Amino acid sequence: DVCPTTLAELAGAQNQWEALPDTLRPRVLFVSVDPDRDNATRLGEYVHGFHKDTLAATADIPSLERFATSLGFVFQKVPGKHFDENPEDYTVEHSASLAVLDPQGRLAGLVRPPFNAPAIARDLQKLTEKSAP
């Protein structure tokens, strides 16, 4: 339930950035921590349903674990009641915060729930303007 709610709030922020020059527009990257079910096509369709500029990625589990850990995030697969009969019966629990990365990919901050699209738009726009050459 966290992912669609968060992507909807971020889409509200992205709508406020559309008039910004491309070089100053913050980017939203959705990283799936469920590579068994999320391929590139499925991820792209999913995130573009919220906003056309949202990027999406995933990787193998060891790479995702290293990435999540570097940001202070966690995730784990939780088998459902019928996992033994159906290996698709699971959920993936994960952190709900957003990582803010600088242009070099370093952690610059965290945004924690509850999310507010106007506040996110304002704060990330200010950070982007400050990091511009």
How does this structure look, described?
Helix 1 (about 1-15) crosses helix 4. Strands 1-2 form a two-stranded parallel sheet. It is α+β, with helices and mostly antiparallel strands. It has helices at about 1-15, 40-50, 60-70, 115-130, and strands at about 30, 55, 75-80, 90-95, 100, 105-110. It has four helices and six strands. The model has no long low-confidence stretch (mean pLDDT about 90). Helix content is about 40%, strand content about 20%. Strand 5 and strand 6 (about 105-110) form a beta hairpin. The radius of gyration is 16 Å and the shape is elongated.
Unreliable runs? none
Quote the average pLDDT: 92
Q: Provide the structure class.
A: alpha+beta
Question: Ends: how far apart?
Answer: 38 Å
Radius of gyration over C-alpha positions, nearest whole angstrom: 16 Å
Order of helices and strands: HEHEHEEEEH
Largest sheet: 2 strands, parallel
Strand content: 15-25%
Total DSSP E strands: 6
Approximate shape? elongated
* Order of neighbouring strands in the sheet with most strands: 1-2
- Treating each run of at least 4 consecutive H or I residues as one helix, how many helices? 4
Helical residue percent band: 25-40%
Could you give the topology of this structure?
Blueprint: H1 2-17, E1 29-31, H2 40-48, E2 55-57, H3 61-71, E3 75-79, E4 90-94, E5 98-101, E6 107-111, H4 117-131
Parallel strand pairs: 1-2
Antiparallel strand pairs: 3-4, 5-6
